[in-house]
Amino acid sequence: MKIADILSGDLIIPELTSKNKKEVLEELVSVIVKQNKLINKEELIEVLLEREQLGSTGIGDGIAIPHGKLKNIGALLASFGKSIDGVDFDSMDGKPTHLFFLLVAPENSAGIHLKALARISRLLKDSSFKQDLMEAKLKDDLFKTIIERDENSQ
After folding, report:
1. Catalytically annotated residues
2. Which domain holds residue 26?
3. How far is CA 20 from the centre of its chain?
4. Segment 65-89, tens digit of pLDDT
């Protein structure tokens, strides 16, 4: 599985304006809903917030990978957002979160979203990749950085 299969430039937010967890999720969901009109925005946000109640998807080191499962979608969906200042996302290390990869899987899927979570987590362990993402200013630059790193790590 490649990130390019689930993420496009239109699903990237180079400067999140959100100040809290719920607002971040709303921004990340908005770009997905814009491309997938059949998805109910409020329902997806609720699914993600319910998942957050089980334990924060803020994995620390400035990274969060919010995820959830939704009925009536046929494939894995993703969006990416960056916050320059960082957001309190209840991360495991208590530090602000800057990089957000949102994943939404079909309700009946098991393996595909776990593979995507593992792949994204593996990529984000590379401090030079995180630095490149933080330095990229434009949507296209962020997308190119993500795709190139994903291609080179196969």
Report:
1. 67
2. 3-152
3. 15
4. 999 999 889 899 999 999 999 999 9
